[in-house]
Design goal:
The protein is mainly α. It has one domain. Helix content is 79%, strand content 0%. The chain is built from twelve helices and no strands. Helix 7 runs antiparallel to helix 8.
């Protein structure tokens, strides 16, 4: 079996995301059916209360007829909308939100690479597939380096791990943002009937506006995260990294602390992961909302903890191989850490 081909053709996050989208779609459909009649009853009750309050306030001159007419227009439009959409309102808002998120963010990948059309996926699942496909060359290069490792060339294993970690976290962090985007679209769809109903009355219009701003911020967050990933991939594409050419001296020259291309690839990977988190702050600043990275952070931390557990078990196996191999690994790792600590100092990173 060709492992390199598997890396390029297998989407590890697509199946879970497709299942999650199916579950959220089924949930919104069932919720639409359940909430339809109670929402109409609540709206009719509030509309009746508005009629009574307006009838009392108008003779007392606590309001004017133009205000009453304006509120009547809003209530009429909302009533027609809630009645005509029946139980499809939640599903309509949910599917529209997903389509806008997926369409706007997918356009960014056309700048970074040409893998968008080859994934065979659509919507937000296609974004996760593109995210994996975009970094596959880095994973293939790390795999090639690891295959060149041996008991007394354990530095190749170290270089492979160091190369994989930031891009593994990058893919996990981006996939987590896609999952969170689906959840946000689901919640906006769930609250859509309440927001439409609230918009009919003066006291609830600010609430409805806040809901629209939250949806806009959710779209901007995913767009910013996609832009951060695309920027990273755009930088990696400009570097001479071709896994099939990494043999012999070329491999040794590439997997070296003295190779600036190797360091740039590492820098882009960590920068991309950090900038994905920054995307939420930018979206909040633009839309004046308060979205957080808590959910995405928990998922990323869980994936990282699982990977660290695997590395710990591998380290226990390596301990059985003897002290010399571990001494080499420690020396190489210490050298790499020192390289990054001093890279901005005069003469550092040399």
């Amino acid at each position: 079996m060709d492992n390199t081909k598997d890396l390029a053709s297998t989407c590890w996050t697509c199946k879970p995301l497709e299942k999650y989208v199916e579950l959220t779609q089924s949930f919104t459909n069932d919720l639409s059916t359940t909430l339809y009649e109670p929402m109409l009853m609540l709206f009719a009750s509030l509309a009746g209360l508005w009629v009574v309050v307006s009838a009392i306030k108008l003779p007392l001159r606590l309001t004017d007829k133009w205000k009453v007419i304006q509120d009547f227009v809003f209530i009429t439009i909302t009533g027609l909308l809630l009645g005509s959409q029946a139980n499809a309102l939640i599903s309509y808002v949910y599917s529209s939100a997903l389509a806008i998120m997926g369409g706007s963010s997918a356009a960014v990948f056309s700048i970074a690479g040409d893998g968008q059309a080859s994934t065979g996926k659509t919507g937000l699942v296609a974004l996760a597939a593109n995210g994996e496909l975009a970094v596959v060359k880095v994973f293939q290069a790390a795999e090639t380096i690891a295959k060149a490792g041996a008991l007394y060339e354990i530095q190749n294993y170290v270089y492979a791990i160091v190369l994989v970690v930031p891009y593994f976290l990058l893919v996990v962090a981006y996939s987590a943002q896609v999952v969170v985007a689906i959840f946000r679209a689901t919640m906006v769809g769930v609250f859509a009937p309440f927001l439409f109903m609230a918009f009919a009355f003066g006291w609830g219009r600010d609430m409805a506006k806040a809901g629209v701003k939250t949806l806009l911020a959710s779209i901007l967050v995913l767009f910013a995260c996609t832009a951060a990933l695309a920027l990273t991939i755009y930088g990696v594409k400009g570097l001479p990294i071709e896994p099939t050419d990494l043999v012999g001296d070329k491999l040794n020259d590439f997997a070296s602390l003295g190779n600036p291309d190797f360091l740039v690839i590492l820098f882009l990977g960590w920068a991309g992961t950090a900038l994905i988190a920054e995307g939420t702050a930018i979206a909040n600043s633009i839309a004046q909302t308060a979205l957080t990275n808590t959910a995405a952070g928990i998922m990323t931390a869980g994936a990282t903890a699982s990977a660290m557990l695997g590395m710990k078990k591998s380290g226990q196996v390596a301990s059985a191989l003897g002290g010399p191999a571990l001494d080499i690994a420690k020396t190489q790792t210490s050298s790499l850490v020192d390289k990054f600590k001093n890279i901005n100092k005069p003469g550092g990173g040399a």
